[in-house]
Each structure stands twice: as C-alpha cells, then as structure tokens.
Design goal:
InterPro entries: Homeodomain-like_sf (IPR009057), HTH_TetR (IPR001647), Tet_transcr_reg_TetR-rel_C_sf (IPR036271), TetR_C (IPR011075). It holds the Pfam family TetR_C_13. Residues 36-55 bind DNA. This protein is mainly α. The chain has helices spanning 16-30, 37-44, 48-55, 58-71, 73-84, 88-102, 113-116, 126-152, 162-181, 186-197; strands at residues 2-7, 10-15. The protein has a two-stranded antiparallel ribbon. Helix 9 packs antiparallel against helix 10 (186-197).
Length: 205
C-alpha cells in the first residue's frame, strides 16, 4: 500500500509495509531508546516529514510496530498453542518448544520483540516500557486462566498454584528470549524447554 508524506512541498511515495518492516527490525535489534528518528528514516527510506505524516511520532510508530508484530506468526504462536492444543501441558510444551526454534531464528533479530525492545527507557519514555510490560502481564493472565481451567479438569493436582505456574512459564519464556539475544541456539533453548517442562506438576497426556 502506498502512502505519501510531504517533503519540500511535494509528496513522496513509499511502500508503507516495507518501511514498517525496516522500523521493526531496528527497534527489535536496538531497542526503543537506542533507535533514533534519524536512523529510522534512513532505514525506512523516508524523510522525517513522511514518518510523522504516515505514522505520527516515534512512540506511535513503535506501537504500530508492536501491534503488527503481535498479529504475525511470531507474535501469535503462544495464543495459537493455547487455542489449538487440547491439554494445558500440550499447550505449554508447544509454546516452549516453538520459542526454542523461533527466538534464535536468523531470519529475524534474536529473541522476542515485546520482551527485549524496551528494557531500558528514560523517564520521559517510561510509558513505552509500561506498554510492553502490560502486554507481557496480559499474557500471564491468559496463562493463569488456562492453568486454572486445567486444574478444574483434573489435568493439574488440586494443590497446584496456577498463578505461580503462569509466572514460572512467563519467566522461562523471557529467559529463553534473553539467551537467544546472548547467542544461544535452538539446541540449547530446546534443552531449557525440556528442563522447564519437567517441573510440570500434573498429567502430561
């Protein structure tokens, strides 16, 4: 889809999806704070006026990047597993095993965009960090709901703590993302996934 932005009184056309993909790569590789508007416009092949006209400001562009990522297979693999797998164990096993192959995939920056893109932000950009924190916490709410349902169905022992288990798996997933950023490959991450799954307290069928 073509979009135009004003430059010196004349519109300049550019491919919006391509520009957004370049912005995603930069934010994912460097993080929100370390990515400047100048670097974004250079990578996107547009001038600052076009960026502001098409996307708003840097924060608005980042939100669109995150929302687009969240609708892609890279962003939906956890929700897909929770929806499609018939058992909670099957869902979490699939999530961790998929993460082990997705996070170190060389076709994109390592790790998970929503985990690593805003770990260090200035006070004036704190809302960016809070935005991603809220997204991650929303995942934990979904995890906990699935685990509570599993306990009610007898997939987990009556004494199992769904909130603690949700936090545990959330922490493992975040740790796997960071290990991928630090250079861990799919074999190491797959081993981590299996070790984490060994802590599952209920049925594994």
């Amino acid at each position: 889809m073509a979009t135009t932005g004003g430059t010196r009184g004349r519109p300049r056309g550019f491919d919006r999806d391509t520009a957004l993909a370049e912005a995603t790569r930069l934010f994912w590789e460097r993080g929100y704070e370390a990515t400047s508007v100048g670097e974004l416009t250079e990578a996107m092949g547009i001038r600052p006026g076009s960026l502001y006209a098409a996307f708003g400001d840097k924060k608005a562009l980042f939100r669109e990047v995150v929302e687009t990522y969240g609708r892609s297979p890279l962003g939906t693999f956890m929700a897909d597993a929770l929806r499609e797998e018939p058992t909670a164990y099957g869902a979490f096993a699939r999530i961790l095993r998929d993460a082990a192959s997705i996070y170190p995939d060389p076709s994109h920056p390592a790790g998970c965009l929503t985990i690593c893109a805003a770990t260090n932000v200035t006070v004036q950009d704190a809302e960016v960090g809070e935005y991603l924190r809220d997204l991650r916490n929303a995942n934990l709410v979904v995890f906990e709901a699935r685990l509570r349902e599993a306990r009610e169905r007898g997939e987990l022992p009556a004494g199992a703590d769904p909130r603690a288990l949700a936090g545990y798996f959330g922490a493992v997933i975040q740790g796997m993302s960071q290990r991928a950023r630090d250079g861990a490959g799919p074999e190491e991450l797959a081993t981590i996934a299996e070790v984490a799954l060994a802590a599952w307290p209920g049925r594994r069928d």
